[in-house]
Amino acid sequence: ESKLSVVHLGFEQFKPVAEKAAFESPKPYLLYVGSRHGYKNFSGLLRAVASSARLKSDFDIVAFGGGGFSEGELAQIQQLSLSFDQVRQVGGNDDVLGQLYEGAKAFVYPSLYEGFGLPPLEAMAHSCPVISSGTSSMPEVIGNAGVLFDPESSDEMAQAIERVVYSDSEITRLVKLGHERLNHFSWQRCTEETLSIYRSLQR
Fold this sequence. Notes:
This protein is an alpha/beta fold. Helix content is 43%, strand content 13%. It has 9 helices and 6 strands, in the order βααβαβαβαβαβααα. Strands 3-2-1-4-5-6 form a 6-stranded parallel β-sheet, with helices on both faces. Strand 4 (106-109), helix 5 (119-125) and strand 5 (130-133) form a beta-alpha-beta unit. The longest helix is centred in the C-terminal third of the chain and has 15 residues, at 187-201. The two termini are 19 Å apart.
């Protein structure tokens, strides 16, 4: 254990979105980013939103990337009585993703496991509040700059989402903490800490 050192990756922040991409949502939306298979637990997010009458009525779900919905996903959306207009998949480049972060009411990261996880940092860089699973690497990456939940519990996930999206003060708090948290993941800091380790080996 004494021979181990931890250096967090650097994070290259997005440039501000210069032009708005062609995306509009009739209702406020929760943003999901990335592939949706297995441990990514997109199905858990669908169950959580469907379990809350308020969330189901007030919010859409936008999934960026990951390709079009599979037959299984479409079947689950229908089984949960979510409309196909309410749960949408969007693809595109970083400008589209940047606009989605900036327009979302919150970013939800329901993964059962992640080795690191860049999307929460991307959300913070775009002033989007983060609501995340509290397992594996996520607490270490997110720190106090997000609301964490048990990804195995639909009720706990729904409660965490409700805690954020229905509170302007909580959104403001998380955005501020998110901006501060990004300082832990600069390439400058990564470089300095790595160099410090090499220098310590010369002693």
